[in-house]
Amino acid sequence: MWTPEQRGRMAEIARKTKRYPSDLTDEEWERMAPLMPVPGRRGRPREVEFREVINAVRYLVRSGCGWRMLPVHFGHWRTVYGWFRELARRFLFQTIHDVELMLDRERTGREASPTAAVIDSQSVKAPQAGTRGYDAGKKIVGRKRHIAVDTDGRLLMVNLTPADISDSAGAQTILDAIRKRWPWVKHLFADAAYDRLRLMDKATYLDFVLEIIRRRDGAQGFEVLPRRWVVERTFGWMIRWRRLVRDYERRIDVSTAMILVAMGANLARRNAHP
Q: How far apart are CA 67 and CA 81, in angstroms?
């Protein structure tokens, strides 16, 4: 819930940006600049300013506009899109997100690497996706976002599949990715949709403890469940970025990069302006 103090704080941060609230502040860019690619020794000197590329991508994801509708002062949209794809191939957005995640955990007095995670999924419409499926439960044609977050809601891993892939099947890839990127995670929380023998066997094989959080017997209507509300809040943070309300991307890797841009921007602003 917004309070007058929070609104005043966000207005003060917005005044530090160059043009739009989504633009990088000087404090954010100072932390992010060392992660940018170094210019090559050969060839034509680079004329693109990476700060403007990041600003353009964040503006696009935050506002939900199309590539061709980017304001002209960001540069030609083809240039921005080309560098976006190049930086995504170099896993720059993944790196920025993970670095900011660990810094945010340390800022709040936690260890840099989490030891517990919450997993869940969300089906979204994907009208232009190259591969999509039909989620019969949600009655949605599109893609499904399988995510894992730490116990404070920070995004740890995301896996995109057609919407007809079950929660437990999509979570198997999440488990493999968590074990490689976040090796200290041992405890996982999930809802009853993940109580499947194959997933339980894989969790045991990868040395995870998978705890199923169930509703109380006889409970009716909405009920806030421990641990599970955290991942639902992360989905809420995600769809505040209008490009993520639906999945407008044709390619899965581009859609994943959009999610990392949004969640990394949330963490970067939180760390630069605590």
A: 7
